[in-house]
Amino acid sequence: NNYTNSPCGHCARSIFCPMPMQPLSFVFADRATVLGWMGADVQDEIAQHILDLKPDRILLITDETVDALHGDYFGQLRAEQAPIAGETGMDSDCGDRPPVEKFVLPCGDACKSWSNLTALMEWAFGSGATKRSLVVALGGGALMNVSGLFASMLYRGTTLVYVPTTLLAMHDVTTSLKTSICFDGRKNNIGTFYTPLKILIDVAFCRTLPRGELFSGIGELAKNAALLGGKHAEGFCEALSCERINGEHGGSGEEFSLDGATLAKLLDLGIEAKMSVLLGDAYEKTSGMIFEYGHTVSHAIEKAYGDGIVPHGLGVTYGMLSSSFAAERLGIMSSADREEHDKLCWLLLRRWPLPEPKPTAQKVIALALRDSKRGLCGEAEDEISDVLLRKMGDVVSTPTNNLSKFPCSLVEEWLIDMGFPQETGKAERIA
């Protein structure tokens, strides 16, 4: 993509200075090409992009946190607001504006439930939605997942626009056609593949991201760095070693920022990493499966702690450590290559240790054995599967969707080394 951003010296508390929207193109093999735009402080431009679609009704879906922070972001779409200059320079006619219906979901994975999907359906039909209505998802990755699934089912496919509000969603969720909810204690086991019509990114949302959410987005970039190496590893390491953590928020340390140029570079790298692979595998079944690296154990850790405790991208980075441990034990990765891999992960993880108390190792393993990818490798009862690396930038290719199966006892050993407690009477399993 062609998006760049330069910081300016007088922006004391802002990550980004205003930047007009620049066009992007998300090409998913021969399945779909999605037009996107990225800028900073581009509220009016995003609103106009939505109005240009001329829906009869806007179904705006957001979550509680985004609504509290940015509840008026689309206030100008309402007919009583002042006109917005259109792309032709002509003012839009307020009287022709469609009604905006808003539905507020819980935050994080709590929104990805069967009951919330049902509630969205009931709301849509109760609001008078038709096939000309437009679904706008304003939120992070989880919100976009459930909104995408909802849009794919409503009238067998309703026009969808993504407006991501987290770093992770901007570079890792927009670059996938996956939609999902979580069911029966499992992660992302119900879903579809669905194409949005537009992806509209306002990087200014990153200004209000708390520490964990910004780290979450950086965690998925650590995964790309390990998978692809080269400039992705170099860019990640440079950003994490040279970042300027903003400790001026009352000394709390709860929020921090990267300078605009660094964060723009990370976004560029993240989008390029995913789209370079999905250019040949839109549904992430073969070469695209590599982006599941670290996810088997990550999903298990996230679910073992409970929704919303461990941000997803951080969970993925911890999951990467478990996979490198297994790869070394299996003789696939050398100790030196594992040290290099893990050093990259700890650039981030040293800033975000896992919360205490940790769940038991056995609870994490039980959840890993129910992973949604299970079955692709023909795993035995005591095996799990994940992507494995020989070294950074060198993925182990397999005929089973680039997944490798290995004994879950290796993950259990890693968990215990990491301080996850054992259930009483289980210590002998690792002897």
The mean pLDDT is 89
Radius of gyration: 22 Å
Helical stretch tally: 13
For the biggest sheet, the summary is: 7 strands, mixed
**What would the principal axes of the Cα set say about the shape?**
globular
| H/E topology pattern | EEHEHEHEHEHEEEHHHHHHHEEEEH
Percentage of residues in helical conformation? 25-40%
Low-confidence runs:
1-14, 81-93, 243-256, 427-431
How large a portion of the residues is in β-strands, by DSSP E? 15-25%
Q: Label the structural class.
A: alpha/beta
End-to-end span in angstroms?
52 Å
Strand adjacency order, main sheet: 1-2-9-6-5-3-4
Number of strands: 13
Describe it:
The radius of gyration is 22 Å and the shape is globular. Helix 5 (167-173) packs parallel to helix 6 and helix 6 runs antiparallel to helix 11 (335-349). Strand 7 and strand 8 (186-190) form a beta hairpin. It has helices spanning 43-51, 64-70, 114-126, 141-153, 167-173, 211-228, 230-242, 260-278, 295-305, 312-329, 335-349, 361-368, 408-417, and strands at 19-28, 32-40, 58-63, 100-105, 134-139, 159-164, 181-183, 186-190, 198-202, 383-386, 389-391, 394-395, 404-407. With 431 residues, it is an alpha/beta fold. Residues 1-14, 81-93, 243-256 and 427-431 have low confidence and may be disordered. It has 13 helices and 13 strands. The protein is 37% helix and 16% strand. It has a 7-stranded mixed beta sheet, sandwiched between helices. A two-stranded antiparallel ribbon has the order 7-8.
